[in-house]
Amino acid sequence: MAKVLMKGNEAIGEAAIRAGCKNYFAYPITPQSEVAEYLSKRLPEEGGVFLQGESEVAVGYMIFGAAGAGERVMTTSSSPGISLMSEALSYIAAAQCPAVFVNIMRGGPGLGGILPSQGDYFQATKGGGHGDYHLLVLAPDGVQEAVEMTMQAFTLAEKYRNPVMIMGDGLIGQMMEPVEFPDGLKTEPTNKDDWATNGMAHRNSKKRNLVKSLFLDPTALNDNNLALKAKYAQMKKEEVQYELVNADTDYQVLITSYGTMSRVCRTAIDMLKEEGIEVAMLRPKTLFPFPEKAVFDASGKESCQAVISIEMSMGQMVEDVERCVKGRRPVEFYGECGGDIPSPEKIIEIIKALL
Amino acid sequence: MTINFTDIVIVAGNYGSGKTETAVNLAAACRRTGKSVAIADLDLVNPYFRTREARIPLEAMGIQVVLPDRQYLFADLPILAPAVADILRQPADVTILDAGGDDVGVTVLASLAAVLKNKPVRMLQVINAFRPFTGDVAGCLKIRKEIEASGKINITGLISNANLMDDTSVAHIYQGYDLVKQVSAHTGLPVEFITATPEIRSQLDLNRITCPVLTLDRHLLPPWKPTGAPPPSHLKLKT
Question: How many domains would you assign to chain A?
Answer without folding.
Answer: 2
